[in-house]
Amino acid sequence: MTEKTTTLGSIKTGTTIQKVLQNFRIVAIWT
Questions:
Q1: Has this prediction a pTM greater than 0.85?
Q2: Is the dihedral of CA 20, 22, 17, 8 positive or negative?
Q3: How far apart are the C-alpha atoms of 23 and 17, rounded to whole Å?
Q4: 7 is in which domain, residue-wise?
Q5: Full DSSP string of 4-26
């Protein structure tokens, strides 16, 4: 269970990081 939860957490953090990076890219384009 711990391994599954850690993998899910890493996937969630990875997706959130990607979203943040995309937001930064959009901001950079608009600025």
A1: no
A2: positive
A3: 10
A4: 1-31
A5: HHHHHHHHHHHHHHHHHHHHHHH
